[in-house]
Amino acid sequence: MDGLQTTKRAVRRFWEDAPCGVERAVATEGSREWFAEIERRRERQEPFIGEFAEFASTGGKTVLEIGVGVGTDHVRFARAGADLHGIDLTERAVALVRRRLELEGLSSDLRVADAEALPFADESFDVVYSWGVLHHTPDTARAVAEAVRVAQPGARVCIMVYSRHAWVSYGLWLRRGPLRGRPTRSLADVLAHHMESPGTKGFTERELRAMLDGVTDLRIDKVATPYDRAYAGPLAAPTGRWLGFFQVARGRKRAAATADLHEPGNAPYLRL
Question: Taking the domain 2-253, which CATH number applies?
Answer without folding.
Answer: 3.40.50.150
